[in-house]
Amino acid sequence: MSESSSPIRLDLSSLREAPQDVLHLLPCEVDHNGSAPVDRYFTPAIRQGSQEKSVSFRGRSLKGQEVIVPQGYVGLVLKEDQRPCTEEEERTVRLKSTFGTLTVWNLERAPSADDGLLLALSWPGIAEAIHAPVSRKEQ
Amino acid sequence: MRRPRRAAPRARGSRTMLGSGRRRPADSHPDQWVLVAPEPVTDLPMKPDGGPLFTRLRNPSTGEAALYLFNSSAQQLFEVKAFHEEYRSWFIGQTVQHDGRLLFATPVDPLFLVLFYLIKAEKEKGKFQPLDQVVVDSEFSSCTMLLQCARVMDSLHHVIEEKEIGNKKFYKYSQEKTLMWLKKKVNQTVKVLKSSNVCVGGRVQSATFISGKQITDIKEDDYVRYAHGLISEYIPEHLSAELSKYLQLPELTSPEADPPLKKRKFSDAPVEAEEDYTKFNSSDLKNKKTTSKMSAAQKALAKVDKTGMKTMSAFFSAKTKARK
Amino acid sequence: MELAEFERDNAGSCRLGSPVPELCRAGPCCLGIDEAGRGPVLGPMVYGVCYCPLAKQEELGALKMADSKTLTEAEREQLFGTLDGARDFVGWALHILSPNLISTSMQQRAKYNLNALSHDTAIGLIQHVLDAGVQVAEVFVDTVGPAEKYQEKLKRHFPELEVTVRPKADSLFPIVSAASICAKVARDRAVKNWTFPEDLGDVRMEYGSGYPNDPKTKEWLAQCLDPVFGYPQFVRFSWSTAQTILESKAVPVRWDDSEDDPAQKGTRSVLSFFARKESSKRQPHRFFHERKLETVTGL
């Protein structure tokens, strides 16, 4: 098997102290993992229009919309500080931060209800219904 | 430089500094994930070293590995899906994350996963067995956790026949009961599809349009077929075909395919409402017949299989062929 | 000249102008157009128009307007003061295009090149002045591109006007010189008083003229580069000067309309690692396909 098959424990011990993070889903692939001065370059340049947010990134125009995580759900950013060297060792991911909203950005065109992410946010509600126990009364 | 123009992108190999030597930084092994999960997932564990557990289990529809999540008490099971669009990355606080996926953990009925093993056991042995001999998997050892879910034991009766010998319980898969259970699943799925304005008729309408005004020419059948398609994501292929017959869905050329893009396929004899399902009874008998017949064939096949090295999936595809 | 309106949102564009002199509503006028800040990699590009009655051309000549490029900043400010003093027969209007607007237009999915942007801005300004009631009869335009095509384009838009598009018009026609002074003064002031929405930390604000060959500009560009964001919105990302630095020193960024990228194939195969194997015969239901939801096999 190509991926570790041992279970991965989610360490919730930092739940109370976990900070709220601000999340932006960009319409491009940034080939980097690591720090980025979002609050110095990006956040102050965001303009709130009557319909949508706008900003630019690398000289390209982005239009965005803030969305809320579905009711009854929480947004979690999980982090694995050190991946074990062998597949047999148990892995742990910790809760790094939480979020209640995120801003989804599109290139030049405002996100609409037909966009993948906005549609995807309906999945939890549908899943709840599919997977609810069947009631004995229903025939 | 009076008339600047866009420079042609350079060959990646000529990149300097940050560019060279750090292609695809950490994506072979991402170390950070963005997840949307039900609130109970964050219920604190009883033991300090406890906590929710991500584990790989067999996807009951494909038999292949998929990621699931047990809550801290291992009483609730969630499946993990990823919203994955090309050209997406995250800003998370003061960081950038290349992997722009958004993971969703959503509840899954653990009975679907147990059902997979019950069907497998029925095909291999075809007799009453204790559950702990049925739900075992050398490749996915976590599957035994499914039996610790109170919900599994409470709902097991929907899909099995039970015998008690001494004080030990023995179980056997019942397709007849399972289809009845799945029909209820389909019905509750139809309800949520209607209430959440999911576009079931075809992809021609946009969600914005649909949400404004309900399309009138969407038939009950379209909802049932769509719900059948969703439920089929959690059951083996042959059972999906059986369920389709059981629901009296008009045949489609390919078993699990929904109407192709733009060409919406409506049945000419729409079934009005759930109450109408009584009229399926006559065909149920026919189904039963087929079922018992097939289980004989299954047994025969199972015997052959014992000696061989066939994989689960090969076994299932052989089955489907035999059925046709 | 009050740039406050532009400064309120220096990521967009803004049109401003003097009050229209009554004389310009009463009789036929000439109108000059010039631009400032087309070449620099930094700051806004400003389009300026200046107009006065044909009958007052001699008086305009007496104001000794000259091509703004031959003047020092102080001389330009002084001449702008002179124009302001002649407000009873000279009017002006400006259109300031922010560097962000230039970057995002030129790099738009449907590319909007600088010439088209310039022409449309000039046309917009002429229309703006006409709408204000100025009796425009003759138009003089300075251009860097092919004059004939531009002239045809303007004539198509304004068949009733006599249009002259000429390279170096700013040194030939006093009304164009006046327009060039207005534009240049606005550009100078906007660059000088640029308020960065971004917090650039310790970066020194000595960015020179903004021309790519100015050593101060070069040094500033090297200094304020951020590997992820590249530059503040003050920089024109669409300029090859900026693009060259970004390509060599910043993190690669790919868009869905990025030109062919050999690295792309590799990316996809790495990411599809997480996706359902293609060999799997059962395709997910279209519900999931439409929502771009995939089965995950591991963290």
UniProtKB/TrEMBL annotation, chain A:
Q: Name one GO cellular component term.
A: ribonuclease H2 complex
The UniProt entry, under CDD domains, shows: RNase_H2-C (cd09271)
Q: Which InterPro entries match?
A: RNase_H2_subunit_C, RNase_H2_suC
Task: Tell me the Gene Ontology biological-process terms attached to this UniProt entry.
Answer: RNA catabolic process
Domain of life from the UniProt record: Eukaryota
Q: Which PANTHER family match?
A: RIBONUCLEASE H2 SUBUNIT C
Q: Can you say what this protein is called?
A: Ribonuclease H2 subunit C
TrEMBL record, chain B:
The GO biological-process annotations, alphabetized, read as: RNA catabolic process
Under InterPro entries, the record lists: RNase_H2_suB, RNase_H2_suB_wHTH, Rnh202_N
The subcellular location is: Nucleus
GO annotations of cellular component type: nucleoplasm; ribonuclease H2 complex
Describe the location of the Rnh202 triple barrel domain by residue ranges.
54-109
Region: Disordered, residue numbers: 1-31
Domain Ribonuclease H2 subunit B wHTH: start-end pairs? 112-243
The domain of life is Eukaryota
UniProt lists compositionally biased (Basic residues) regions at 1-13
Q: Which UniProt keywords apply?
A: Nucleus
Q: What is its main location?
A: nucleus
Record note on quaternary structure: The RNase H2 complex is a heterotrimer composed of the catalytic subunit RNASEH2A and the non-catalytic subunits RNASEH2B and RNASEH2C.
Family that this chain belongs to: Belongs to the RNase H2 subunit B family.
| Biological role | Non catalytic subunit of RNase H2, an endonuclease that specifically degrades the RNA of RNA:DNA hybrids. Participates in DNA replication, possibly by mediating the removal of lagging-strand Okazaki fragment RNA primers during DNA replication. Mediates the excision of single ribonucleotides from DNA:RNA duplexes.
State the name under which the record lists this protein.
Answer: Ribonuclease H2 subunit B
Q: Which organism is it from?
A: Terrapene triunguis
Automatic annotation (TrEMBL), chain C:
Q: State where a divalent metal cation binds.
A: 34-35, 142
Which keywords accompany this UniProt record?
Endonuclease, Hydrolase, Metal-binding, Nuclease
Query: The organism sits in which domain of life?
Result: Eukaryota
Q: Which cofactor does it need?
A: Mn(2+); Mg(2+)
Q: Does the keyword Nuclease apply?
A: yes
Query: What GO cellular-component annotations does this UniProt entry give?
Result: cytosol; nucleoplasm; ribonuclease H2 complex
EC code: 3.1.26.4
Q: InterPro entries attached here?
A: RNase_H2_suA, RNase_HII/HIII, RNase_HII/HIII_dom, RNase_HII_hlx-loop-hlx_cap_dom, RNaseH-like_sf, RNaseH_sf
Classification via PROSITE patterns: RNASE_H_2
Q: GO biological process: any one?
A: DNA replication, removal of RNA primer
- RNase H type-2 domain residues are 28-251
**Annotated cofactor note:** Manganese or magnesium. Binds 1 divalent metal ion per monomer in the absence of substrate. May bind a second metal ion after substrate binding.
MF terms in GO: metal ion binding; RNA binding; RNA-DNA hybrid ribonuclease activity
Show the catalytic activity: Endonucleolytic cleavage to 5'-phosphomonoester
The UniProt subunit note reads as follows: The RNase H2 complex is a heterotrimer composed of the catalytic subunit RNASEH2A and the non-catalytic subunits RNASEH2B and RNASEH2C.
The similarity annotation says: Belongs to the RNase HII family. Eukaryotic subfamily.
Supply the NCBIfam families for this chain.
Answer: ribonuclease HII
- Role according to the record: Catalytic subunit of RNase HII, an endonuclease that specifically degrades the RNA of RNA:DNA hybrids. Participates in DNA replication, possibly by mediating the removal of lagging-strand Okazaki fragment RNA primers during DNA replication. Mediates the excision of single ribonucleotides from DNA:RNA duplexes.
Name of the protein this chain belongs to: Ribonuclease
Please name the source species: Terrapene triunguis (Three-toed box turtle)
